[in-house]
Amino acid sequence: MAITNLRSPPTPVVDVDEESATLDGSGSGSTAPTTPEGSMCFSPLPPLDDFPVNLPPRSQGKLNSTSTTSLAPVPPVRNICCVGAGYVGGPTAAVIAFQNPHIRVTVVDRDEKRIRRWNSRHPPIYEPGLNDILRVARDGSRECVFPNQPSTQPEAGEDGASDSSISSDCGSQSDDGSRGPITIPARQPNLFFTTEVAKCISEADIVLVAVNTPTKYRGAGAGSATDMTAFEAVTAVVAQHARPGAIIVEKSTVPVRTADFVQETLALHRPNTPFTVLSNPEFLAAGTAIQDLLTVDRILIGSSPTPAGLAAAAALASVYASWVPRSRILTTNVFSSELAKLVANSMLAQRISSINSIAAVCEATGADVDEVARAIGADPRIGPKFLKAGIGFGGSCFKKDVLSLAYLAESLRLPEVADYWRAVIGMNEFARDRFAARVVRCLNNTLVGKKLAVLGYAFKKDTNDTRESPAVDIIRSLLEEGPREVAVFDPCCVPEMMREEIGRFLGAEVLSGNGGCVVVYGDAYEACSGADALLITTEFDEFKNTPVGGDGVEKKKVVKKVVVDPRPFKGSEGPTESELLALHNALRAQVEGGDEDPLGRFNAMPSCDAGCMDCQLEKTTGAAGYGASQQHVSKGRLDWSRIHGQMRRPHWVFDGRRVLDIEVMEKMGFRVESVGRQGR
Ligand SMILES: NC(=O)C1=CN([C@@H]2O[C@H](COP(=O)(O)OP(=O)(O)OC[C@H]3O[C@@H](n4cnc5c(N)ncnc54)[C@H](O)[C@@H]3O)[C@@H](O)[C@H]2O)C=CC1
Ligand SMILES: O=C(O)[C@H]1O[C@H](OP(=O)(O)OP(=O)(O)OC[C@H]2O[C@@H](n3ccc(=O)[nH]c3=O)[C@H](O)[C@@H]2O)[C@H](O)[C@@H](O)[C@@H]1O
């Protein structure tokens, strides 16, 4: 007998402590505008301890609250619109849709090219696991049937035969009903991408605003303040088109008290229409976005403490509760939530700058920064994460968010606080400059006539995101010395894209073909061939070295990931989407390079036009790591002995990310200089 799955959560009701709605009990202690029913008041809030922090299990359907004096119905969520189809909006909306088949999720963006890509086989960003999510949520899925027993374990009574095949004839149901076949019904697509911004906003119960909020580059606060142009533009569209009662969610990272501004804009355009504004910052990291979203450590929801504010928070929480344990959904006041995001990134950046400052001390003293990091990281109060020294942090957010915090402090007339955080950025720049200077110093203070290969262009491993990549600054510094060639290779980025970006950041004239000396390669060995020095600028595993045997052949350490088959699924409701995904991954892991759809759930992917630029790019470049059909396939670790044979003496390697085993490299004849370790 078939068991169907895909539970949809009941609509909860929220208990609200009216006393806590404002500190003074007046209903609003602020001059900030409120909606007619007072859904947003920016008054001081009660201490967090008094605020309903964790939401109860779905079945209870009520917010925890010590004293409950009124009930506000939690609005049902059937339609979500996410504005911004970027690194955050795309994956976040995809996971929300994947986990909530009963909710229609539409991602809107004004960038037609981006939307076209999301609707094609070539999503505009690469993230491990994204493809599997899109294949179900965007494309819908077929009915599938599978036995409810681990395929690696033989069926009791059978001769050790294990059945990893999935077919419609998969055995009979056992007595207790738990091991029989499970039928997963077909799923309709519920994730859509479109440029119809206003229309989709007007249909949504929840509008997630996930547009870019970079640093201002001109005018007041240039270089520090957040550029709110995109956010403001979207807010105006939302204000004009959102339906009454809609919940507006700040997903973008925004300055503290942005919710005030959103509320004012809404009140300006639609004075008598109730809206609720929430802060729900995103903590995902590039390269692990899907994993971060699926196994999230916390969801932060900031709301006003009014009945409507808390009800809106509960509505948003119910969306996440489809897969996130209630204990990980934290609610705070809206400004704490906005500030917490800036502080989270600033503290992470600060840790990196702290260890990089120590790297400089190590280079001058003979201590080794990895050893220092290991020693201090063993203290649970410090912890081992984010202590990897290198050439500094990159990425679209750390720098801008630290600067935004510093700007906030300046605006609040707290220059000491601002200086403290600005020093984090200063130390980051120092790390890069020191590394580039070290390369030049080791190469006799001149790069003229020399070829240098830069390995890694993305700002971190396993992503094709190159925003604020330290590699760009390193290339710029190298070019100042007039080298013969700067070769650039990245295992995850498409060469054409890298060329385009380098041209944009450093000027088209630096590129080969335009009279410049920067050559972008799609092959690491070509990039390294004839090089005087190699610089490792991104911590890709591909660049790590592994012991070499007497035969000169690289001995790869094969660490087989143990992916546990999650069956048997217990309970009468059938597996959740997360459990199905775990099964999908377990079955895939059983066979190397095996079936991309072992459950037989996937529908056909969208087809591309004959003239699809991305298909052509894939054909001409190999383009591993680009496009849904081609997730980042590791090109394997570099064969360092082969590279040694191709390089010029004395085989300089500058390890800016501490990925190399120096002893092994030196035995092979390389001359290695590493960040955080004394050089020669
Ligand atoms: N990239 C990351 O890993 C993380 C980013 N964030 C924050 O999330 C926000 C978004 O960042 P990303 O996704 O990286 O930015 P992004 O630049 O990749 O995407 C933003 C998208 O918004 C669209 N957009 C801009 N103005 C628009 C308008 N008026 N109407 C419709 N669409 C519009 C752009 O076309 C673009 O596709 C930022 O505030 C960022 O600080 C937060 C956590 C992680
Ligand atoms: O707001 C954001 O955009 C996101 O910023 C970071 O995520 P991300 O920038 O994608 O990547 P990280 O893993 O944090 O790495 C950032 C940079 O720091 C560098 N790094 C990281 C860790 C470390 O120990 N040392 C180090 O140099 C990385 O190489 C990379 O260049 C945060 O980790 C996310 O929580 C946050 O949501």
Automatic annotation (TrEMBL):
Active site, UniProt feature: 397
Pathway of action: Nucleotide-sugar biosynthesis; UDP-alpha-D-glucuronate biosynthesis; UDP-alpha-D-glucuronate from UDP-alpha-D-glucose: step 1/1
GO molecular function: NAD binding; UDP-glucose 6-dehydrogenase activity
Its EC number(s): 1.1.1.22
Keywords tagged on the record: NAD, Oxidoreductase
Residues binding NAD(+): 213, 253, 400, 467
PANTHER family: UDP-GLUCOSE 6-DEHYDROGENASE, UDP-GLUCOSE DEHYDROGENASE/UDP-MANNAC DEHYDROGENASE
Protein name (database record): UDP-glucose 6-dehydrogenase
Organism from which the protein derives: Cercophora scortea
